[in-house]
Known about the structure:
Elements: H1 2-23, E1 79-85, E2 89-93, E3 101-103, E4 107-108, E5 111-112, H2 118-122, E6 132-133, E7 142-146, E8 152-156, E9 159-160, E10 182-184, E11 214-219, E12 223-228, E13 235-237, H3 253-256, E14 284-286, E15 292-296, E16 299-300, E17 322-324
Parallel strand pairs: 1-6
Antiparallel strand pairs: 1-2, 3-10, 4-5, 7-8, 8-9, 11-12, 13-17, 14-15, 15-16
Amino acid sequence: MKTSWRSASLVVSAVAVAALTTACGSETAPPASSQNVGATAAAGDYGNSAGLGSGYDAGAAGQEGGASPSAAAGASAGELAVATNEELGELLTDSAGMTLYRFDKDTADPPKSNCDGDCASKWPPVPADDATAGKDVDSSVLGSVTRSDGTKQLTIDGWPAYRYAKDAKAGDVNGQEVGGTWYALAPDGKKAQGGSGGGAAGGGGAEAADLPGLSTRKDPKLGEIVIDKNGHTVYRFMKDTQWPMSTKCTGECLDKWPVVAPVDAKDTKGIDLQGSTPNRGYVVFDRPDGIKQQSIDCVPIYTFAGDKKPGDTNGQGVGGTWFAVRPDGKPVGASEK
C-alpha cells in the first residue's frame, strides 16, 4: 500500500508540474523552485512617482510622527458617527471623529482579521466592547470578531474595523487606499469612495466594490484594459519574464507597484483565459519574497500607487517599462521582445 500511494503521489505531482509548464510555454519541466527566481531592479526602473506601499503596514506618504491618542491600540470607539468627506462622501468615525478603515485582506463572511503584529501597530483594531450606533448609523451592521489574541474587534457588516496611526486629527483620511488594500469605511461597511468608482464598461457608474476581482474597461486613450476589484488600472513590468516566470520588481519597487493578489478564475470578467483547464497562462506566481501574485498569460501583474482613483492611468509608460495590460496580458503601447 505504501508503494502504491507513493507512486500515485508522484504521478499527480508530475501532472501538476507538466500542466503549469505547458501553461507558461516551457518545453521542459523546470525545477520546483524555478518559479521563485527573481532579481531586484535598480531604483530608477520603478518610475519617479511616489507610492504609498503595498501591504499590511505601509504608511502614507509624507506622514510623520506616532499614533494619535484616538488611534492608540485599545482606545475605545464610543458612539460611532457618520462624517462627510468632500472626495469620499459619507464615512464612519469613532466618537472622537477619527476615520475607521477596512482591510482588503480581511474577510467579512465569516468575519476574520488578518492584521496582527506590526500591522496592528500601524492599524490599531477598534475594540467592540463599548461601540454603539450614533445618529445615522444602523445598529444592525455592528458586530464583533475575536482576534488571534482573544480580544474583541468591532466589525461593520462583517468587516473588521481599524483606525490609522498616522491620522492625527478628526477628519483625516491619510489611510485611504494605502497599499491598494486599505479603505475608509462607509456607514454600511462598504468602501468609502465617493462617486468616482470605475465601472467595468467605461470609467464610471458601478461602485468599485461591486466589480469582479479582475475585469476590463474601455479607456478612451488606451482601449480595452484590465482593472482590479477597486477599478484601478492593472500594469505589467517589461523587465519581468514569462517563463521561467520571474520578477524584477521587489523591495522598494513594490511600494510604488503593489502586486495584484491571486484572483479566482471564476471571479473575472472579460479576461482572456485562453480556454484550457487549468486556464492557460492564468496562474499564481510564488514570488521570491513569499508574496503570491496573479499573472495573466504568465506575466505578473501590478497596480500603481500613483493612481489615486478608479480610471487613473498614471502608471502608463512610467520609466519606459510599465504599461497597462490588455485582456490577453499583452502590454498597451509597447512591443514584447
